[in-house]
Amino acid sequence: MDMIFNGQVTGPVANRLLASNFDTRVLRPFIGADGRSYVTVTNARGQADSMPVGNAYATLRKDDWQILDDVVTKVGLERLRGVGDLRAAGLVYNIPNGMSKTVLQTESMSDINPASVSMDGLRESANDRTVFELTNLPLPIIHKDFHFSARQLATSRNGGSPLDTTMAEAAARKVAEEAERLLVGNSTTADQYAYGGGTIYGLTDFGGRITRVITAPTASGWTGSTLLDEVLAMMQDSRDAFHYGPWVLYMAPAWARYTGNDFKDGSDKALRSRLLEVDDLNDIRTLDYLTGYTMVLVQQTSDVIREVVGMDLTTVQWESFGGMQINFKVMAIMVPQIRADQNGNTGIVHAAPAT
Known about the structure:
By secondary structure, the chain is α+β, with helices and mostly antiparallel strands. Among the domains are: 1-58, no CATH class; 207-305 and 341-353, hypothetical protein PF0899 fold (2-Layer Sandwich), CATH 3.30.2320. Helix content is 25%, strand content 30%. It has helices at residues 12-19, 62-79, 81-88, 150-159, 166-184, 224-240, 256-259, 271-275; strands at 3-5, 8-10, 30-31, 37-42, 48-52, 92-94, 103-109, 132-138, 142-149, 193-195, 198-200, 210-214, 247-251, 281-286, 295-299, 305-320, 325-338, 348-353. A five-stranded mixed beta sheet has the order 12-18-15-13-14, with helices on one face. Strands 6-16-17-9 form a four-stranded mixed beta sheet.
């Protein structure tokens, strides 16, 4: 067993991490062309460089690592739709060396009084100051393990065939799915992950979100106009909370069969196309882990939501059973940070039919 607690380490894996200031690249050794073991490090010029290691524990060639990394990245991108949207919009906060930190401490800020208007500028405006409140956001590691036997690796290498990446794909998929579930707010591990005086909330379980009851498309009398009116009402809810867009509308998969239909009888456009004509509604996206006929309207600005990334999808390796089993762990530190001001105002509107 490997443990790190209060600076005390137990086990070879923990020792390597602590000695390298939690740089996970020490757990990604590869066999160079000369047969020696190497790890990738950052040199004095800030560039990636290969450094030989004295204890020969590398079991994979550099090409083997490339195969695993390509598979893990590809599968991760397929499942990280909501997280990917945030990153594409620049709504991301990167934490260097996130493995060495367990919480992110941030501040919420109160508003101040409006500015004064006068002809000569001599009128004294209200003299006030903002109030700050500290909040903690846990930074857990999302991880999934798999392994190969030394014999499997030898068979692959001697036969000239690439590694079977099936388990790597499955592990990466599970890690990415959990990161996406944390964003949605229905994690399979814990609906609300708490640590260090802070809690991770998602789009559908954040206590400060705006909620609205909408009409299910299966209800009698429902039409495309019903949905349009209710989306407009959701946008007004956001404006009433002093959040004016732009927005992205996330919908549960069950909505797809309705938004793809005609907006109304005889219409030449789909309901989805009609919704996208609304000012400041930038996109409509399906999130796999939204349930029923749930919708979430999200203002895409950093004061409302951002993805905190302490580590992208990464695969590390270590040995056990005297080197007869090669263990791998796909892991990431990716958590959503849902934000509201000190008055509780936010730009997230969570809508669902009455239950």
